[in-house]
Amino acid sequence: MDTLCLCNGYADGRYVLPPLPYDVAALEPLLDAETVLLHHTRHHAAYVDGANAAAAMMRQVALGELPEKAASVAAEHLAFHLAGHMLHTLYWGNLCPTPGQQPCGSLADAINTAFGSYDGFSRVFRAAAAGVQGSGWAILAKDAMSHRLVVLAAHRHQDALLPRMRPLLVCDVWEHAYYLRYHNNRAGYIDAFMNQICWHSVAKRFNHNEENNHACCK
Ligand SMILES: [Fe+2]
Q1: What is the Å distance from ligand 1's center to 149 Cα?
Q2: pLDDT, tens only, 139-153
Q3: Which of 6, 9, 112, 196 is the 20 to 30 Å CA partner of 16?
């Protein structure tokens, strides 16, 4: 299974919880097994269930089985839960049991172009993640307009669904992602996160996007 593929989150007409690409204890020292287990099987799974429920409600409105006013509720719920499902699927895929990786190749070049250096990127990404008020995400994304890398901060989940922004690397800064180990020390979690990024996975996403950059112009 290609653990990077979002298609792992959908099967047989339903959203499904993709298996982790590693054991729940494999992300030490970043995260303990209990945090990973709860995060995956409770929080991520809840977004999967919520997306299925919202999609079912939407179908019921379409079939006339629910009043039209239910459509706006379903749309709000689907935006929240489906975005949560997608972001968590990306999150598990961009973490690595082996600490200390660094970006290389064309991805490293793109980081240098956008941020001057890896250290410059790291400074921006850490600060963006630390600065999210309440619950949300820091996201390294490919801006399809400029074709440059950008760092975005998103509240909740669905606020990350910016048009044509393709997420390459996502850091969950909801408290459920780190509180058992780090308590209110979000900065400590972010520092550890930065040391356990699977840059190989990020590079695969980046290179896939590169290949499809100008598909609309051909
Ligand atoms: Fe989460």
Answers
A1: 23
A2: 999 988 898 999 999
A3: 196
